[in-house]
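User: Hey, quick favor. My workstation is busy. Could you predict this chain's structure for me?
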Amino acid sequence: MQDFAEAFRLAARLVLSGDPTLMEIIALSLRVSLSALAIAVLVGLPAGAFLAIARFAGRNALLVVLNALMGLPPVVLGLLVYLALSRAGPLGALGLLYTPTAMIIAQSLLITPIIAALSRQVIEDLDREYGEQFRSLCLSPYRRIAVLVREGRLALTTVALAGFGRAIAEVGAVIIVGGNIAHVTRVMTTAIALETAKGELALALALGLVLMTIALLVNGAVMAIRLGTGDERHA
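Assistant: No problem, here it is.
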């Protein structure tokens, strides 16, 4: 086990020098999480907007399921994706297991319910506020959703940032479907777990510092958006 002071010194050196291994891991982490976020927003935002304004039989049951999926244990999700992508699974022929694509799929499935549920709440609150105006203007559902999304764009941006923060901090699902393979599927969270288990703290601390910096930047962006709106009801 490395001396803590020495480990911190080496970690700082790795970050400041732009160590190639460190940069490779960070780049893959960002690529996977941003790709997953893009998919989750493309699927979750329209789904949340639809659920915000639609009224149909079974809607409440669907909302219960959606809220439950927000708390789905990542390792359970990872196991389900693993079974689907494994050689004996229905998607095994695609050969996606232990690839960045598998990690993107897992992260997308993990954060899409979060994006959908939080988007629904934001848009439903706005719809409740502007409902009378919409009815007087006789807006179509699609036009109504477009206006609500535009009005709630800042709050929806914070929803997306929350989804990104959840994705990039994930370890359980991605290590199951990605395998933590060096130079292929090793991301920040899985590398931290591996290096800590090996007792090699320098790289783990360096990655931890970067991950904490990203978390601070995301939370700072959320706070800046909230302050920028001047109204925290929709953020």
